[in-house]
Every structure is written in C-alpha cells, then in structure tokens.
Amino acid sequence: MTGLAAALAEGLGADLPGRLGVAVSGGGDSMALMHLMAGWAQARGADLAVVTVDHGLRPEAAAEADFVARVAAGLGLSHDTLNWDGWDGHGNLQDRARRARQRLIADWACRRRIGAVALGHTADDQAETFLMRLARGAGVDGLSGMAPRRAAEGMLWLRPLLACRRAELRSYLEELGQVWVEDPGNVDPRFARVRARAALTVLAPLGIEAATLAGVCRNLARARDALDAHAEAAARRVARIDGGDVVFDRAALDALPGETRRRLMRHALVWVSGADYGPREGALEETLAALADCPAATLHGCLMLADGPTLRIAREHRAVAAAETPTGALWDGRWRFDGPHHAELTLRALGEAGLAACPDWRATGRPRAALVAQPGVWRGEKLVAAPLAGLSEGWRAWLATGEDSFFRLVDSH
C-alpha cells in the first residue's frame, strides 16, 4: 500500500487545482484509484468528488454505478452518475463510448468547478495501447502511449497510475477486503484491446511484457517532446494566428526539416478543427502535394488555402454548418462570445448569407472562404453581429483556449 500511495503521489505531480475529480467505473483499476485518492485527499485536505458514467449498454450498469456511489459515500466522497444514450449501433463502439464519456465528465467537472479528473489507466493499459497503435503503423507520437497529463475539453486529465500494474491494484483491493466489478467486455475478443491483452501473454516469453512496453512508451515520449520542442520554436518563427486561423509563411515553412513541417501541419489541423487526433500520415502528405497545383484543399474538417506567400489553415464551412449554440455557450469547441446575450440569440456559422450582411468583411484581410466558417450572432435568419467579419455591434469573439495555445506543442498531448 505504501508503494502504491507513493506511486500515486508521484503520478499526480504538483501544481494541481484545488478541486479534483476521479472517474470510477467499478472495475478494479478505478476502484483502487478511488481508495488511493481518498487517502491522498484526506491527508492533504483536498476536495475530491467521484463520477461514474453509465453508457446504457448493459442492464447491470445502473447497479454498478450504485455500487460505486455506496463505496464513495463510505469514503466520505460525493458521487454523481452521468448517463449516455447516444449509441446507435453504428461505428466503433469503444471509441464512441470513450469520446462520450470524456465529454460528459468534462461538462460535469465544469459544473462542479473541478479543474482536473484522475483516470485509472495502468502500465498494462499502456502496453495494450502500444500494441494497438503499432498494428496501425503509428509513429513516434502514437507509440508514445497515453500521457500522464493531458489537457482536453477545457480541463486537465490525470493518469497517476501509469507506472502501476493491474495485478498490484487488485491485490491492494483484496487487502482492503474490497470487491470490484468485472466488465464482460474485458474478455470479449471482438475488441482490439482484449486481443492485445492476449497477445501480451504470447509475447511474454520473449521479454515483451507490460512493464517493458510501458518503458518503451516513456522513452518515445521523451523523443516526442524533443521533436515538439523543436517544432514549437519553429512555429513562433513561421506562423501567426489570424481570426482563429493558422497562417504560415510558406517559404519559411518549406525550409523546415520534413518532420518539423509535418508536425506543425498536423498540429495546426488539430488545433483549428478541435479534433482529438490528427489526420493519417498518408492523407496529410497527399493533401500537401495537391496544394502544389491547386490553391485550396480540405482535410480533417479544415480548409487549406495556399495564397501567394502564405498557407492558411481555416475551418471548413461544411464541418460547422450545422453547429448552433446559445450565445453564452462554447461554439465549435473553440469560440466564446461577449455581448448583450439574449435567449432568442444563437451562434451559427456565417455562410454566404451571413457574410453578405457584413459590408466591411474585406477590411479584415481574411479570405471569403475562411470567413464563411466563422461564427456570427443570429436571431433566427437575421444576422445580428459577426465580430470576426467586421460587424461587431457590441460583441466580441475570443478563443477559449487563447491564441498562444497553438504555440505550445509540448503540452498538446
């Protein structure tokens, strides 16, 4: 127990927000994390809350959430259950569930003024992730595995148990006399993670074990950070932010080493689109090659405009055409608006009709193709304001993450 408590403290690190959350499914890893975090929080007088997501995929899930709530109450911790009913039977179930879980927990944390949430991933999860990404032909970034800390959805995600083994955590729970839930999905060979787990058993006689692969991930993460540091320094020389778009000096960009250029382009596409991951290597290379003969291309929900000495990465209008939120909410995962909010007003992309209602849009110096994807304030079908297109009318638009977030590649994982 002392060893796990020390590993937790080291994994959490310093500079933590005042209020923390812990995501607990009821499985062995997350139950052990909750007990360890409860002891850690009590010793430091920290404020800790527990959250469980019921994906609605199994009839036992509601009872499992209630089980977590009872154990949390016994530890003196508050608990909330969040429900997801978005599975329509199409696509990658595990990926869809993971994305939904992250969004739900981030919204919960925001409401509770929680600045960081701890997750129960272990060295075994890291090794399985490595094998799955290896099978997809991942490079340094993908094979670096899961990061101990990651900023996403407006908050900080912590994985303080990445140095711990799954068996250690279950032994710890047994010492406490604590039971946990076994998800039948953990033995279902339809899922890639289950097959990767089985492969590790086969590879063990070669010395390719979870601890070994977790160490490889750490080594590659250091290499990735060095590459990102170089790319970050280059970004400040060759790029600027204009109205939420990334604008590169084409000559300076082309003069960079190929790997640095690739990292900057991939990062720009992720930053502008708000996607969790960048485009596949082949798709990026094909698109960049196409720009040599064509002034515009689309990729990853972004529009790439090669105009004379610059290359602009903007949002693609088609990717945001259906996005609509109240004016006080986050639009497209990026934009916030300040102004005379009213229940009748919403945020939507300008489109051609909205841009036509902005007589001074040319004075912004931004191309039409980029501006049509920018947000405006609408009352029904009437445009009220579009500060990014020269029609402010008392409104201000600003990036929730700040413009400088583009230039922090090392912290982007």
UniProtKB/TrEMBL annotation:
Its EC number is 6.3.4.19. It is found in: Cytoplasm. Keywords: ATP-binding, Cytoplasm, Ligase, Nucleotide-binding, tRNA processing. It is an enzyme of class 6 (ligase). Residues 21-197 form the tRNA(Ile)-lysidine/2-thiocytidine synthase N-terminal domain. It catalyses: cytidine(34) in tRNA(Ile2) + L-lysine + ATP = lysidine(34) in tRNA(Ile2) + AMP + diphosphate + H(+). InterPro entries: Rossmann-like_a/b/a_fold, TilS/TtcA_N, tRNA_Ile_lys_synt, tRNA_Ile_lys_synt_N. ATP binds at S25, G26, G27, G28, D29, S30. Gene3D superfamilies: HUPs. The N-terminal region contains the highly conserved SGGXDS motif, predicted to be a P-loop motif involved in ATP binding. Belongs to the tRNA(Ile)-lysidine synthase family. Ligates lysine onto the cytidine present at position 34 of the AUA codon-specific tRNA(Ile) that contains the anticodon CAU, in an ATP-dependent manner. Cytidine is converted to lysidine, thus changing the amino acid specificity of the tRNA from methionine to isoleucine. This is tRNA(Ile)-lysidine synthase. The gene is tilS.
